[in-house]
Every structure is written in structure tokens, then in C-alpha cells.
Amino acid sequence: MWPWLVEGAGLLTQILLLFRGLRAGMFRRYYFFYIYITSAMLASLVMVWIILNSPGLYGKWYWLMQISTLVTGYGILLEIMNHVLSPYPGAERCARICGIVAFGVIFCFAVLAPVVTPRWSPGTVIEFERDLRSVQSLFICGLLALIFYYGIPIGKNMKGMVVGYGVYIVTSLMSLAVRAYAGPSFTSVWRVVQPVSLDVSLMIWLVALWSYCPNPVPDSNIPLEQDYEALVTKTRSVIVAIRDHFRKAARA
Amino acid sequence: MIQLIFFLAIGVLLFASLFFLARRNPRSEGSSSALIEARQALVALQAGLLPVELVKRIFAKEDWEYVRAEAPATVRDMFKQERKKVALLWVEQVRTQIHSLRRFHRGAARSYAKLNPKTEMELALSFAGLLMACRALQTAIYVAGPYAAPQMVASMANAASRACKVSEECLAFLNAAQLGVLNGPSAGQATL
User: Fold this and answer.
1) How many CB atoms neighbour CB A107 within 10 A?
2) Contact check, Cβ <8 Å, B10/A242
3) pTM of the prediction?
4) Under 8 Å CB-to-CB from B54, ≥6 apart: which residues?
5) Strand, helix or coil at B94?
6) Which helix (H) or strand (E) holds B142?
């Protein structure tokens, strides 16, 4: 009964999220995000159909669905990059480099892992998803580090998107890591934690994306006369000057 | 086991980042209002808090010698404690200036399409080092008192004035017309 309640609540929230997205005209604004929600909803429906009609296929299809939603989930990260960092080309450049590296790792994993791994047992699938989740986690950490460092403002929609997806990734990563370490004894806990964390994320998204809230942009872009190299040179010389003073002070 | 710890550590790192994001003030750094605030703070410091004469007065050993010679022990103790507090506040102002410079650099650099991540990393480390040095000096005053190292005080006075100059130089990146836009009719009165 309990798994059906969790699954049902998730499906209902996904439908509500899509409905609100349509009503508030957010589909065309956050299309990567809604592609992810649609794919997650379709995956949930397929899984329900499989459980009801051919439960023997559940294990095989579960991982296929997990990996496909994991790949579409990368779209959420692209969405965040597009909306939060686009007014800041410098910060966006750093994030793009970070994203390309992370995506390269995911792509190599997806293409090479089945070829390289001779036996594709459930254990290796768990480790595979855990590794992909850790790459996503690191990418979000990098993205957040850039947002914090450059003091980039983040609106309600985007904040909700990051926090919701982050909560799901953190829970998945940790439960997968423990599952890979502890073995099948942890499966019963893991089967509860995974869908519940998805429901929590969906609730966060539903609240944050109830209505469209544009991401704040700086009150005015400050055009500067000098180029980046000049700014860096000036800042660097100033740091050296201050540091010299402090060295003298420390010696005194 | 090491593998498990590694993945759990990544999870904890992400969780902490999300926590700080959720609690974060939505105001952006480096926006024009933040820059105006930084400019106003700089003016206030240069004009009211950090003139060389004032700094010399705060750290004047003659005052202490006079109090030590003329006043009772309780007054001496109180005087020393008060001067220490003032000295510590003064170092805090130096830190504020460096923070202001860093904030300005970040606010400007994030908009450059040609931003070099490696250079930015180096600068971030340099700023961090500088702020740590400030903390070390603060600790030295806290432990040894404002009169323990007069040369240190002189160097710090220089560093303070240099830090103000630094912020001034950085803010000079904005040309006069753009500053006019930033100040605006409602933005305030600060000018350098």
C-alpha cells in the first residue's frame, strides 16, 4: 500500500506541475525542465504498467528508466545555466567549461561503460548510477560555487529548481553509495528513500514554480573602459602592494 | 569503505551548498547599488575613520605613558582595554577595504566574456591570503596589545591607506559618465 501511495503522490504532483507550467506559460521558458518532468512522468507510468502487467521485467526496465531520466535531468542544469548565468558572460564561461567536462564524463560513462564492463550485473548498474549522480553533484557544487563567489542573484523559480533537483541528487547519491557498500540488505530502505526524495523534490518544484518569477538581473550593467586583462593586472598589482605591507608588518 | 566516505562527502558538500543557497540573501553583489554602497563606505572611511593623524592618535604611546604615570591602576587598565578595542576596530576597517576591493573585482570580472578561470582562481587565492594576513595582524594586536609593536602599527596604517587607495583605483575604472549613471538622483551623495 505504502509504495503505491508514494508513487501516486509523485504522479499527481508531476501532473499538477505540468498543468501549472502550461497555465503560467512556463513551458517555453523552461523547456528543458519540463522535458525532464514529462520524461519522469512517462517513466513512472511505464513502471506502473510494468508492475501491473509483467512484474518480471521490473528490474530491467527500472534501470533503463533511471538512466534515461538521469540524462534528461542534465537539461535542468542547462536550464539553470541559461537563466542564471546568461547576463554574466564571464561566470557563464567558467560554468560552461565545468559543464562540458561533467557532460563529457557522463557521455563517456554512458557509451563506454557497457562496452568496458564485461558483466552488467545489478551491482554494477548501481555503481554506474552512483558515479553519474556524483558527477552531477560535483557540477551543481561548481555551479553554486560560481554563483556564491560572483554574488549572482538567483530568483524563486531558479532557486527552487536547483534546491529541488539538488535534494533528489543528494538523496540518490547517498542511498546508492550506501546500497553499493552494504549490499542487498539496504535495498528495502533504498526502495523507500528514492521515491520519497523524488516526491519531496516535486513538492519543492511545485511551490517554487507555481507562477513565473523572472530571475533578477543587475540593476544596471556597468560598462567598463578597460578590458579584463587591465582589470586583472590592476587588481593583481594592488594585491602585491598590500601583501608587501603586511609582510613588513609581520616582520616588525 | 574509503569509496563510501568519498561519495558521502560529495553528498554532504552538495547538501551544505544547497543549505546556503536556500538561506542566501537574494541581493546580488556587484550590482550598481552595491557598488554605490561600497563607494559610500570608502568615502566615510577615508574622510572620517582613517586619516593618518587619527590613526597616530589612537596608537600614540605618549598617551599610555602619561596615563601610566599619572592615573591609578583601574584607570590604566580601562584605558588599555579601550585602546585595544579601538585598535582592533581599526584593523577591521582594513579588512573591510580589502573586502570592498574583492567585491568590486568580482562584480566587474563576472561580466567579461574573456574571463580566465585560472587567473580568477589565482586572484581568489590572493585575496584569501590577504584577508588571512589581516586576521593574523588582528590576532597579534589582540594578544600583544596596541602598544606591543609600534612598527606594526605604522605598517598597518600604511596598509590601511593603501587599501583605501586600492579601492579608489578600482572604482576609477568607471568613467565619469558611468559614475553619473550609478549615482543617479536618488542614489546618494558619495563622490570620490
Assistant:
1) 12
2) no
3) 0.70
4) none
5) helix
6) helix B117-144
Distance between CA A150 and CA A91 in Å, rounded? 7
Q: Does A243 touch chain B (CB under 8 A)?
A: yes
Residues of A in contact with B110 (CB under 8 A): 88, 90-91, 150, 152
- Please tell me which residue of chain B has the smallest CA distance to A146: B110
ipTM summary value: 0.75
Nearest to B153 by CA among B75, B72, B66, B91: B91
Query: Any residues with CB less than 8 A from the CB of B109 and at least 6 apart, and which?
Result: A90, A150, A228, A231, A232, B115, B120
Rg over alpha carbons for chain A, rounded to the nearest Å, is 22
Residue burial A193-230, b: 16+ Cβ < 10 Å; e: rest: bbbebbbbbbbbbbebbbeebebbebbeebebeeebee
Across the interface, whether the CB atoms of A170 and B18 are under 8 A apart is answered yes
Contact A150 B29 (CB under 8 A): yes
Q: Count of CB atoms within 10 A of residue B185's CB?
A: 5
First to last CA, chain B: 59
Return d(Cα B78, Cα B99) in angstroms, integer. 32
The grid cell for A16 is 499538477
Q: 85-104 in A: which are within 8 Å (CB) of B?
A: 87-91, 93-94, 97
CA–CA distances in Å: residue A169 to residues A129, A137, A248, B94, B131: 11, 7, 49, 41, 34
> How far apart are alpha carbons A168 and A165 in whole angstroms?
5
Supply A79's cell numbers.
536550464
| Grid cell for residue A239 | 594585491
Q: Which residues of chain A neighbour B32 with C-beta distances below 8 Å?
A: 218-220, 222
Ordered per-residue pLDDT tens for chain B, 192 residues: 777 888 888 889 989 998 988 887 765 555 555 566 556 555 655 555 556 677 677 777 888 888 888 888 888 888 888 888 888 887 787 777 777 767 777 777 777 767 777 777 777 777 777 777 778 777 877 887 777 655 665 665 565 555 555 555 555 554 443 444 444 333 333 223
Contact status, residue A62 vs residue A3, Cβ threshold 8 Å: no
For residue B176 the three cell numbers come to 565619469
**How far apart are alpha carbons B45 and B51 in whole angstroms?**
8
Question: If we measure between CA atoms, which residue out of A95, A75, A90 comes closest to residue A218?
Answer: A90
C-alpha cell at A64: 533503463
Grid coordinates belonging to A178: 550506501
